[in-house]
Amino acid sequence: MSDITEILIRAERLHQLEKAEIVALLANRVDDAELFGVADRIRQRYVGDEVHLRGLIEFSNICKQNCLYCGLRRDNQDIKRYRLEPEAVIELAAKAKSYGYKTVVLQSGEDVYYTVERLQTVIYGIKDLGLALTLSLGEKTREEYRAYREAGADRYLLRIETTDRQVYDQLHPGMSLANRLRCLRDLRDLGYEVGTGIMVGLPGQSQESLAEDILFFKAIDADMIGLGPFIPNPATPLRAAAGGTFELALKVMAITRLLLPDSNIPATTAMETLNKQGRTIALQSGANVVMPNVTEGEYRQLYMLYPGKICINDTPAHCRQCIGGKIAAINRTIAQHAGFRSGKNLGQL
Ligand code: SAH
Ligand code: SF4
């Protein structure tokens, strides 16, 4: 039996791995089908064949931060900025509901126009629709997180991006890993379902640091883990970077499933950007969530985190139908409930 097989057998039984074992899986070049198969089996056993759809609303591309990799960074002059008013966001959420989504995810740059008060308006409006609500608005104070939670937000998605301090500092001028961690701790304390994740293939990121990232997800027992390849954006300082590969991102995702058997793990848009079948393959390698875009019109194109983003000319209705077809084609079903982790039901739903 190969070392890889032995590691996988133990991981499937115990959902534990040492750092060196994770590095061995990442470095391995021959038996990846075995890793993906084990991750798929664990996904099936713990979270079943249901796929949770989360309707993604990208409501502002205005950002005060300057993350080196991101097209929304404040120094990027090469992008037309937009923001939707609270009423327009609620309207999109109502449409998402009409397409059958049970959860909407509100995502934006760190846009200071969106004060607590404006966000409360949006949150109340969306909760009145009876939807589960995930926020992904970046770093805020504990008081802000508390106010959103009290207004009814259920989940918060904040990728750690990398746990490697050196890499983190290089990519995030004026930000700190310590504050990112503080945010995640506050979110957990406040009773959110907490989502995090990373980009795979960042400049300076090693297999060791990816292994640390995976162990970090386990250590904080993340309820959701979103990961995708880093895709260099020509409008950013990292335009000439090598970028991540679909294959490595998929492996990091599959290993994450080994360690967190009942977490929600999305098949991400960035994966499909690098591989036409990316989300389908991810759903068969450990993922159980998809986040179709419900943003409308030109805003889809303007929310340009990275180039080549898929579906920028499609309508929300088309995306819903398209993803439904992909899920049916692999004999999976679309969940008809809000899809909290392990069926946990938070409060009002
Ligand atoms: N401002 C919020 C949410 C928007 S950014 C925040 O930063 O949390 C959402 C995610 O897009 C980021 O967490 C990052 O992981 C991803 N992203 C940004 N630029 C990217 C790029 N060039 N390639 C791949 N993913 C990218
Ligand atoms: Fe802003 Fe988020 Fe992009 Fe950083 S990753 S520049 S915080 S939108």
Automatic annotation (TrEMBL):
Every copy of the Radical SAM core domain together lies at 49-268
Which cofactors are required for activity?
A: [2Fe-2S] cluster; [4Fe-4S] cluster
Q: Where does [4Fe-4S] cluster bind?
A: C63, C67, C70
Record's PROSITE patterns? RADICAL_SAM
- Keyword vocabulary terms for this entry: 4Fe-4S, Iron, Iron-sulfur, Metal-binding, S-adenosyl-L-methionine
The free-text cofactor remark is: Binds 1 [4Fe-4S] cluster. The cluster is coordinated with 3 cysteines and an exchangeable S-adenosyl-L-methionine.
Gene Ontology molecular function terms on file: 4 iron, 4 sulfur cluster binding; metal ion binding; transferase activity
Q: Where does (3R)-3-methyl-D-ornithine bind?
A: S136
SUPFAM superfamilies given in the database record: Radical SAM enzymes (SSF102114)
Cross-referenced SMART domains, in alphabetical order? BATS (SM00876), Elp3 (SM00729)
Q: What Pfam families does this protein map onto?
A: Radical_SAM (PF04055)
Record: residues binding S-adenosyl-L-methionine: E161, R180
Q: In its UniProt record, which GO terms are filed under biological process?
A: sulfur compound biosynthetic process; water-soluble vitamin biosynthetic process
What protein name does the entry list? Biotin synthase
